[in-house]
Design a protein that fits this description.
It contains 10 helices and no strands.
Length: about 260
């Protein structure tokens, strides 16, 4: 948890409800734009028009919410940097995920993708990596650490990240949204490892953007088939490292003061 000394430099003292408020505000704007534009999630990567209206536009609106919200709160630095780093071994699963995404780009099928579509895919992927990592991990870490330990921060932030995909039930994929929520909890754990094993949110942003770029651009689901296995690995590694971290912390507290 954050101590008093660690929050004095922040404009607004971290509170769980503030982090949740920004999270909900982001989703409200994002989904409002989807509704206005008549989203069909299964067809997001179909054409230049669908990418602009259903990928870039809602992410652009969400970006405004994040920029304003985090600037008002003054949480930019702790949202983007993490001093409580996990061992570098936690980066193994994110690296494997990045390799899978690259292979999907190498062996995927892109005959339908025009130059304009490539540009929109790049813009949208940069935005989704930045937006979702900042709003569902970076700033939520700041808020949740005001009340919970690291295991709680991992579980709650990752659960909220996965649940933000649940409304897709109403936007074109039906009951598959429940499966997507489960898979996204696993992939969210991989992004969590990318953040905490490097101490910077940027690797998680890049990985997230690369993954979405790879899956939305190719009409062949190679990466999608690997997603459940990557997710399971991400959860297992996150739990193991968090248990070890908690034990180290307990051991350090039990040492006598010399």
């Amino acid at each position: 948890m954050y101590t008093t000394s660690s929050t004095t430099a922040l404009r607004v003292r971290p509170r769980v409800w503030l982090g949740l408020g920004l999270f909900v505000a982001y989703l409200a704007v994002f989904y409002a734009i989807w509704i206005v534009n008549g989203i069909d999630y299964a067809r997001v990567g179909e054409s230049e028009e669908t990418l602009l209206r259903w990928y870039v536009a809602p992410l652009g609106g969400g970006l405004v919410v994040i920029l304003v919200g985090l600037s008002v709160l003054g949480w930019w630095r702790p949202s983007l940097r993490d001093t409580k780093r996990l061992p570098r071994s936690g980066a193994v699963v994110p690296v494997i995920m990045a390799v899978v995404a690259v292979l999907n780009l190498v062996f995927g099928e892109f005959s339908r993708v025009t130059m304009t579509m490539w540009i929109l895919l790049v813009i949208g992927s940069i935005l989704v990596g930045f937006n979702e990592e900042v709003v569902a991990r970076g700033q939520l870490f700041v808020a949740l650490r005001s009340r919970f330990g690291e295991t709680g921060v991992w579980f709650l932030s990752t659960a909220l990240f996965s649940l933000l995909h649940l409304p897709n039930f109403f936007f074109g994929i039906g009951s598959l949204a429940f499966l997507q929520v489960v898979i996204q909890f696993g992939l969210g754990s991989v992004y969590y490892l990318a953040f905490r094993s490097t101490g910077s949110l940027v690797p998680a942003m890049l990985l997230h953007g690369l993954w979405d770029f790879s899956t939305f651009s190719s009409s062949l689901p190679y990466a999608g088939l690997a997603a459940p296995f990557l997710g399971i690995a991400g959860v297992v590694v996150a739990v193991v490292l968090l248990v070890k971290e908690r034990r180290r912390g307990a051991g350090a507290r039990s040492q006598p003061i010399r």
